[in-house]
Amino acid sequence: MVIQKNLITSFNKFRQKIKEKNIVIEKFEVYIDLIFYWIVYEAFLHSNRRMDKLYQKYLSDYHTAEIFYRENFPDGIPKDAKILDAGCGRGRVAAVLTQLGCETTSFDIGKNNFWGAIENQLFFMADVQYIPIKNESFDYCTNFLVLEYVNDDVKAIMELYRILKSNGILIIHVTTKENLKTKFSGKRLDEDHFREYFIDEIKNKVASAGFIVEHISTFGFYSPIFTRFINNIISRTQWKKMGDLVSEDNRGVICIQCRK
Q1: How far apart are the first and last CA of the chain?
Q2: Separation CA 259–CA 250 (nearest Å)
Q3: What is the signed CA dihedral for 140, 131, 120, 50, rounded to 10 degrees?
Q4: pLDDT, tens digit (0-9, with 9 covering 90-100), for 157-183
Q5: How far is CA 19 from the centre of its chain?
Q6: Euclidean distance between CA atoms 108 and 211, whole angstroms
Q7: Are 59 and 117 within 8 A, CB to CB?
Q8: Pair type for strands 83-86 and 104-108
Q9: Is the dihedral of CA 48, 51, 220, 192 positive or negative?
Q10: DSSP state, 89?
C-alpha cells in the first residue's frame, strides 16, 4: 500500500505543476489520469487478485492445467506415482494434478488459504531443510523457486535426495543469476533471495548430492526496468514467449530434471 500511496502522491504533484504552467488541455489530462490509474490498479492494487484468478484456473480449467502439466512433466507421471511438492506456495502443482487424477503431498514453510480449495490432497507446514518424511517415500518431487529463499540450499537438496525412492525424479526451478534484471542492475531479483544461480552452479550442486542430471532448460523473462510492473500485466504465456527472445543464459528461470 505504501508504494501505491507514494505513486499517487507523486503523480498528483506532477499534475499540479503542469496545471500551473497551463500546458495541459482537459482531454489530455483525462488520458493521463486513465493511464496512470490503470497502471496503479493493474500492477499494484490488483496483482494479488489476478494471481488468485490464475490459481483458480489451475484448479478448474483443464486446458490451463494441461499446459502446465506438459511444460513441467513432458514425460508424464504414472497415475499411481507418489508425488511431493516441496515448497508448494499456493499449491499450483497439487491443483493441476488434482484435475489430472494424481495424488500429491505438498508442504511449505507457511500455510496458504488456497490449500483449502484443493480437495483430496495433503498439505502440511515444514522447512525444506528439515523434511519430516521418512527415507525413500516418493517417486517424484518438485521444488519450484524455493532454493533461492533457503539459508542452506545444499542441505535442502540433500533432503530432497533422501526422501526420493531409488530412480526417483526431482524437478527443480531456480532463478538465473544472469537474468536481465540482475545482470543490468547488479541487484538480486528479489531482496529476500539468499542467492541466484548460474546454470553450472545449480547443476553441480544437485550432482554433488548424488543426482544424475538428465535435462536442463531455461525459460521466462525479467525485464531490466519496470520488472514488477511488466510481470504483473503480462500473462504467463507472454512471459515465456518474451523469454524465448533472449539468450538461454539471460532467461528468468533454470529448470533441471534429475534422477536419484
Answers
A1: 45
A2: 26
A3: -90
A4: 999 999 999 999 999 999 999 988 888
A5: 43
A6: 23
A7: yes
A8: parallel
A9: positive
A10: T
Closest Cα to residue 136, out of 160, 152, 155, 108?
160
CA distance 197 to 143: 15
- Please state the φ and ψ torsions of residue 4, each to the nearest 5 degrees: -60, -45
The C-alpha atoms of residue 57 and residue 66 are separated, in whole angstroms, by 11
Q: Position 201: which residue type?
A: E
* pLDDT tens digits, 37-53: 555 555 555 555 666 67
Query: Length of the chain, please?
Result: 260
The predicted pLDDT at position 108 comes to: 96
From residue 152, give the alpha-carbon distance in Å to each of 146, 157, 159, 216, 245: 11, 9, 11, 22, 33
Q: Nearest to residue 202, comparing CAs of 153, 144, 248?
A: 153
pLDDT at 33: 53
CA gap 260, 251 in Å, rounded = 27
Phi, psi of 212 (to 5 degrees): -100, 115
Q: From residue 183, how far is each of 8, 222, 233, 249, 255 by CA, in Å?
A: 30, 10, 22, 11, 19
Residue 79: what pLDDT? 81
Residue tagged 538465473 (cell numbers): 176
CA-to-CA distance for 255 and 217, rounded, in angstroms? Answer: 5
Count the helices and strands in the chain (H runs, E runs): 10, 7
Low-confidence ranges of the chain (pLDDT < 50): 1-7, 23-25, 27
Predicted TM-score (pTM) above 0.90 = no
